[in-house]
Amino acid sequence: MQPGLDPREMRASDKDRDRVADILREAFAEGRLTPEEHAERLDAVYRAKTLGELEPLVRDLPVAPGVAPQVVAPTAARPQHTPATQPPPPLVAIFSNSKVEGRWRLPDAVNAVSVFSEMKIDLRQCEFATPEVDLTANAIFGALELRLPRGVVVRSYGVPLFGEYKVEQDAAEESGAVVVNVRGVALFGSVKIVR
């Protein structure tokens, strides 16, 4: 870190954003955030460029030690690396229609939310970084459709509340296949996982 640089001005990483998104997901599941607050904060998470922008989004929520992005000066310089593929785009649609597709590296935890929107996410060209992925898919007065490649094992834990949470399964599970754990809620909306 450069001398005199405020730690809050440090650029946030994808991992920092994912940790904050996980905190918000837990707070939403526990009833600490309304659907509107959750969607608003999640949108801000994926627009945040610095750690200082992420910090206020979880300041009023209980956070396990080491989970929130730390706004402290690092003791050693961090190694720089260039990913083989593009990082994932923000998977948020609020009062809009959105389609996300292309080749990017899928991290071990992904959050997608559609609020009063129609969103289509195509993951068939994605590179899976880990053998197991936790995918949170929430549709609030909206529709969210995720396309997964064939051969991926899907385990659904989604909950429909006055809506539909539908997962299209493959005929047979392949041993050694990537596992995608789908969680979330369809509140007056629909979530569909298709092949």
Which secondary structure elements does this structure contain, and how are they paired or packed?
Elements: H1 14-29, H2 35-47, H3 51-58, E1 92-94, E2 97-100, E3 105-106, E4 109-115, E5 118-122, E6 127-128, E7 132-140, E8 143-147, E9 153-156, E10 159-161, E11 164-167, E12 179-183, E13 185-187, E14 190-194
Parallel strand pairs: 1-4, 2-5, 3-6, 4-7, 5-8, 7-12, 7-13, 8-14, 9-12, 10-13, 11-14
Helix pairs in contact: 1-2, 1-3
Distance, first to last CA: 45 Å
Task: Supply the number of helical segments.
Answer: 3
- pLDDT below 50 for ≥5 consecutive residues: which ranges? 64-68, 70-85
Shape: globular
Domain DUF1707: 10-62
InterPro entries: DUF1707_SHOCT-like
Protein name: DUF1707 domain-containing protein
Give descriptors for this structure.
3 helices, single chain, alpha/beta, 14 strands, 195 residues, globular, 2 domains, 5-stranded parallel sheet, 7-stranded parallel sheet, 31% strand
Please, could you describe this protein's structure?
With 195 residues, this protein is α/β, with parallel strands linked by helices. It has two domains: 7-58, no CATH class; 92-194, no CATH class. Helices cover 19% and strands 31% of the residues. The chain contains three helices and 14 strands. It has helices at 14-29, 35-47, 51-58; strands spanning 92-94, 97-100, 105-106, 109-115, 118-122, 127-128, 132-140, 143-147, 153-156, 159-161, 164-167, 179-183, 185-187, 190-194. Strands 1, 4, 7, 9, 10, 12 and 13 form a seven-stranded parallel β-sheet that branches. The protein has a five-stranded parallel β-sheet with strand order 2-5-8-14-11, with no helix packed on it. A two-stranded parallel sheet has the order 3-6. Helix 1 runs antiparallel to helix 2 and helix 1 (14-29) packs parallel to helix 3 (51-58).
